[in-house]
Amino acid sequence: MKDNFYALTFHSVSLALQFEKLANDIGIDVELIPVPREISSSCGLAAKFLEDGLDAISTLIKRADYEYDSLYFVDKKTGKKPLRVNF
Fold this sequence. Notes:
The protein is of the alpha+beta class. 28% of the residues lie in helices and 26% in strands.
């Protein structure tokens, strides 16, 4: 994956695992990764996806009323602190 990506964090590991399956089952490319150290999260896993998946992820979360913690934009190339964003 590219240097820039989004990281969606969750309150529990089970929510992260369920979200990965839900997204992948409908064809949205999501990869579970350890939460980047610059971000704190209670469960330790984040769903990583590229910018071209943002609209699909947003629609999925709204339609399913899916519970998540936070969404961050991560730019590993510049090393800046991840930016917390909203859908």
